[in-house]
């Protein structure tokens, strides 16, 4: 039996999990622990808090930590909304050098689609998934995450990270273009992009534009102005459509992230579904792609654990 230390590090909290896996490839989550990320003065300080538990990190077989942001060579990341970076090459710690790998947090979400983390995912748009086809994951939180999982080498699962949330978002019609102009002026930016539209902050921007008052995302959700909800759902469906077409996700699309987890009605609605299939050229393809909502808060851990099992050659 092998042991894997996994983590899902976020700007607010960091979740750690200890997995075991048998030679037959059955991954089991034995325990989880959560720490406030801001309470740690550095990455080493955060990891030391795990060491203070009854977890001997030096004796795990491998470790994979999921982190927000673009990961460089599995060893460096500069994380948004966190005051410190992670650079494994600058440490002489044998755990960092020999056992630990960093991956993008949505890459972990993609790997999670191959685990029991999606067991309770709800189908919000019907379709027929094609076996062994690419699966996409899109999720709104503080940012807009994207990743895909596909077959790489024969029989080997490969997840591909994306920073599509920073690509120019498409706005359609005069009203939406007026909102785009509002964003550019308010934020002094050359163009609007997904991280500013299909996210918690994006929800606040939409409310301010349509209603004329500035509220926090939680307050906007509680207020639930119908027009604001419809706009946000429509934009969410568009973001999911963009990425589904970008990777030809005939294996299906999973919606992850905190926004939909807390407010399922943002995606489980006609505004989302109608926008998802809106394509003059590939509407027929999008009609066939199923979409699921995954609200499992431990999905990032499961995905990191799966990659750890891959590193040990215990899963495909």
How does the major sheet shape up? 6 strands, mixed
Q: What's the end-to-end separation, in Å?
A: 17 Å
CATH architecture verdict of the largest domain = 3-Layer(aba) Sandwich
- SS content category: alpha/beta
Query: Helix count, per DSSP?
Result: 11
Mean pLDDT: 95
Tell me the strand order in the biggest sheet: 8-13-12-9-10-11
What is the CATH C-level name of the largest domain?
Alpha Beta
Radius of gyration: 20 Å
Q: Which percent bin holds the helix content?
A: 25-40%
* Number of DSSP-assigned strands: 13
Q: How many domains, as an integer?
A: 2
Q: Strand-and-helix sequence, N→C?
A: EEEHEEEHEHEEEEHHHHEHHHEH
C-alpha geometry: globular
Unreliable spans: none
CATH topology of the largest domain: Hexokinase, domain 1
- Fraction in beta strands: 15-25%
Protein name: Glucokinase
Organism: Oceanidesulfovibrio marinus
InterPro entries: ATPase_NBD, Glucokinase
GO molecular function: ATP binding; D-glucose binding; glucokinase activity
């Amino acid at each position: 039996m092998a042991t894997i230390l996994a983590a899902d590090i976020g700007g607010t909290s960091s979740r750690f999990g200890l997995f075991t896996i048998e030679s037959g490839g059955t991954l089991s989550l034995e325990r989880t622990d959560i720490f406030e990320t801001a309470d740690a003065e550095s990455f080493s300080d955060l990891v030391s808090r795990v060491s203070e538990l009854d977890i001997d990190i030096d004796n795990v077989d491998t470790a994979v930590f999921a982190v927000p942001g673009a990961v460089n060579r599995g060893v460096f990341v500069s994380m948004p909304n966190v005051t410190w970076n992670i650079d494994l090459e600058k440490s002489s710690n044998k755990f960092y050098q020999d056992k630990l790998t960093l991956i993008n947090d949505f890459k972990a979400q993609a790997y999670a689609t191959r685990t029991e983390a999606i067991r309770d995912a709800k189908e919000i748009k019907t379709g027929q998934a094609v076996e062994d086809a690419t699966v996409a994951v899109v999720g709104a939180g503080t940012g807009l995450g994207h990743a895909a999982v596909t077959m790489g080498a024969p029989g080997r699962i490969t997840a591909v990270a994306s920073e599509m949330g920073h690509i120019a978002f498409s706005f359609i019609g005069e009203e939406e273009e007026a909102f785009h102009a509002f964003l550019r002026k308010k934020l002094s930016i050359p163009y609007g992009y997904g991280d500013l539209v299909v996210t918690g902050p994006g929800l606040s921007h939409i409310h301010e534009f349509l209603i004329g008052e500035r509220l926090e995302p939680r307050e906007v959700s509680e207020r639930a102005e119908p027009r604001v909800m419809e706009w946000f759902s429509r934009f969410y469906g568009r973001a999911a459509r963009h990425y589904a077409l970008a990777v030809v996700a005939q294996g299906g699309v999973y919606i992850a992230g905190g926004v939909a987890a807390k407010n399922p009605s943002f995606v489980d609605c006609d505004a989302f579904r109608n926008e998802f299939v809106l394509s003059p050229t590939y509407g027929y393809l999008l009609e066939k792609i199923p979409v699921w909502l995954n609200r499992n808060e431990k999905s990032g851990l499961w995905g990191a654990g799966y990659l750890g099992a891959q590193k040990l050659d215990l899963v495909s």
